[in-house]
Amino acid sequence: MRVPLTGMEGAELAEAAGFDRGFRALQVFRWIARGAESFADMSDLPLPERERLERDFGPLYGTRVDASLEDGDGTVKLRVRLADGAAVECVLLTDIEGRMTACISTQVGCPMACAFCKTGTLGFLRNLEACEIVEQYLHLAKRYGRPSNLVFMGMGEPLLNLEAVRKSIAVLSSPDGFDLSYRKITISTCGIVPGIRELAANGPHVRLAVSLTAADDTLRSELMPVNKRWPLAELRAALLDYQKATGDRITLEAALMGDRNCGPGEAEKLARFIGRMKAQVNLIPWNPVDGLPFKEPTRAQVEAMERRLEELGVTVNRRMKRGRGVSGACGQLGDTGEVSPKRRAADVREGD
Ligand code: SF4
Q1: Domains (ranges, CATH) in the chain?
Q2: Which of 19, 260, 323, 335 is the most buried (most CB within 10 A)?
């Protein structure tokens, strides 16, 4: 089967494309990063070379965007159709200072079954290839300009597809291409302890975020089955090892559900879990998903949690409710079929 060149760099790209001169691979790599649509666009390659590439590796992209949704708050969601007909979603978030973050998927569906997450209800189909991960970023960059930040936080658990994630980071951080520094790249995991340890030992040492949600083993196991396999004590030890290897602050995400993890004592448990760890807590008001039995937190609940954590000396960041109009907010990804006309966003269908 033809493997698109978009997920390769350096020697791998040179070998796969049959280049006997290294700079040809570099030329192709730079064209891809510049947003070339096809090999025909690569005007500094000799014509016979462009024709050979088109014949042997064309089309340049293995995926296509078959729907895009734009929310009134500036959030964009693309549905990316893969060569085998499956689909994933990626999201572009723009903050008030205009910084763009690409939120990218790593699996079709997800096997982790977190109770509050739409993707978790889909089950797992397969891992994405590196080219399918990179192309999500490329599709966003071509339409909206290069996102300065990248987070592996879309559909799927990135640490269960670590080799493809590593390859995609190598491509997207290359100084010959998008040149994203490791400090601008975040892997967000639900708490796969062996994956965290592997990342600590062998890198890349990008930023790490963990969907913690609750710092109580009983409640966390109920909301996140991963906790039954790797409970909080094991997770905490792995996070401290990652911090030792990188020196970086860890981000702990807490999706707040009004009827589950906003009660008295939750902030104290979170603060105890953090202890001396250098960490920041992102409070994310739970985003409603049809059919899931949770309540959104009230504004008062979120503010009370924020206040209590601050009193306990925890660095807190309250996340805005962004992307809801396109079901592109945290925990809402998973529209791989037709898009509901009821949603308030403009639905712009795109052909291939
Ligand atoms: S929160 Fe992340 S790990 Fe959990 S089911 Fe959703 S996509 Fe998977």
Answers
A1: 5-57 (no CATH), 64-348 (3.20.20.70)
A2: 323
- Ligand 1 midpoint to CA 29 (Å): 32
Looking at residue 329, its pLDDT comes to: 60
Q: How far, CA to CA in Å, does 140 sit from each of 137, 178, 201, 257, 327?
A: 5, 13, 32, 31, 17
Q: Report pLDDT for 339.
A: 31
Q: Cα of 287 to ligand 1 centre, how many Å?
A: 14
The residue type found at 315 is T
Between the alpha carbon of residue 307 and those of residues 34, 167, 281, the distances in Å are 45, 41, 12
Catalytic residue chosen out of the listed positions 9, 89, 157, 253: 89
Whether ligand 1 lies within 6 angstroms of the CB of 153 is answered as: no
User: Ligand 1 center to residue 302 CA distance, Å?
Assistant: 22
330 as an active site residue: the answer is yes
286 Cα: distance to centroid of ligand 1 (angstroms): 13
Beta bridge partners of 89: 79
Length of the chain: 352
Residue among 65, 143, 16, 173 at smallest CA distance from 28: 16
Nearest to 256 by CA among 185, 325, 186, 317: 317
Residue 265 makes CB contacts below 8 A (sequence gap 6+) with: none
Active-site residue flag, 89: yes
Looking at ligand 1, which atom is closest to the CA of residue 113? 5
- This prediction's pTM: 0.92
Question: What are 40-76's pLDDT values in tens digits?
Answer: 999 999 999 999 999 999 999 999 999 999 988 889 9
The single residue of 110, 190, 262, 330 carrying the catalytic annotation is 330
Q: For the chain, which ranges sit under pLDDT 70?
A: 1, 320-331, 335-352
Whole-number pLDDT of residue 345: 28
CB 89 near ligand 1, within 6 Å? no
Helix 299-311 with 266-274: angle, nearest 10 deg: 40
Of 239, 246, 91, 97, which Cα lies nearest the Cα of 183? 246
